[in-house]
Amino acid sequence: MPHIAIISSSVRRERKSHYVSLYFKNYLEENNLSTVEILDLKAYNFPIFEDTIKTFQNPSEKVLDFAVKIKSADGIIIVTPEYNGGFPASLKNVIDLLYDEWHGKPISISTVSAGVFGGAQALVSLQFVLWKIGAWTVTKMFPVPNVEKTFDAKGNALDKMTTDKLAKVFLDKLFESVEANKLTHTV
Questions:
Q1: Secondary structure class of 147 (helix, strand, coil)
Q2: For the chain, what percent of residues have pLDDT higher than 90?
């Protein structure tokens, strides 16, 4: 069974994107699709990194733990809000911290916004950054417009049937990439 890490990237007090992270965790567990854990950047509370992990002198246990969790995950779902047309600095901070851990890693992206566009601008810039570091960005996206009208604080989809159908298509593409990645690394 694959292991999926979900990065909940917002560290704001009133964050709503975390609801989507909870939804994916619940969905994956309820459907017995993978083992799963949420890597909550708010809980990690990382400082702004001045270096990459390769050249870090005496990295903290939290930093090493995060790096191991990214490296050992078969696939990653990044759930990010869109702030002012981009993704949060907390996410860029951990992307830039690592390098080898991201290389070739299947990553699916879910963008979240309070408006009707579902984080489309954040998606474009995040895809580019992940491409530059050699991550395997999965082509199927999961944009969430009007997040407050779509999910509750416990990660329950308010229109469960429709959301589950969209999640299945999104996750099927992630699992296809995970399987293809395993094949390319065993040949």
A1: helix
A2: 90
pLDDT of residue 24: 98
129-176 pLDDT tens trace: 999 999 999 999 999 999 999 999 999 999 999 999 999 999 999 999
Alpha helices per DSSP H over the chain: 17-30, 41-44, 61-72, 89-97, 120-132, 160-186
The H or E element spanning position 40 is strand 35-40
- Say how far apart CA 2 and CA 25 lie, in whole Å: 13
pLDDT in tens, 37-47: 999 999 999 99
CB 150 within 8 A of CB 157: yes
Q: How many domains does the chain have?
A: 1
Q: pLDDT by residue (tens digit) across 76-115? A: 999 999 999 999 999 999 999 999 999 999 999 999 999 9
CATH code: domain of residue 62: 3.40.50.360
CA dihedral 124, 172, 39, 163 (to 10 degrees): 80
Burial of 100 (0-12, 13-18, 19+ CB in 10 A): middle
Domain of 182?
A: 3-186
Torsion of CA 138, 99, 97, 83, to 10 degrees: -20
Alpha-carbon span 181 to 136, nearest angstrom: 9
